[in-house]
Design a protein that fits this description.
It is a single chain. Helix content is 67%, strand content 0%. With 73 residues, it is an all-alpha fold. It has a domain of 34 residues. The chain is flat, with a radius of gyration of 18 Å. The model has no long low-confidence stretch (mean pLDDT 86).
Length: 73
């Protein structure tokens, strides 16, 4: 994702919830009007069950670590 796109997302996060929903609705409408991509290129082999299992394990470990360090509300 480009730096500009990340900046836009950060700005959206500063909006009120109602404004965030309005932005989301507008994006959904505009994306629905965009032409479909012409082709999709896939790289590498399809994921195996083992690949997915390992990815899930790493993801949940990261989430557990993040949760440990989060401040309670």
């Amino acid at each position: 994702m480009s730096t500009n796109a990340q900046g836009v997302l950060e700005q959206i996060c500063t909006l009120s919830i109602s404004d965030q929903h309005a932005v989301l609705r507008e994006l959904e409408q505009r994306i629905g009007q965009m032409p479909a991509p012409v082709s999709v290129e896939l790289y590498g082999e399809p994921l195996t069950d083992e690949d997915i299992d390992q990815s899930a394990r790493v993801t949940f470990q990261a989430l557990d670590q993040e949760e440990k360090h989060a401040e309670s509300r």
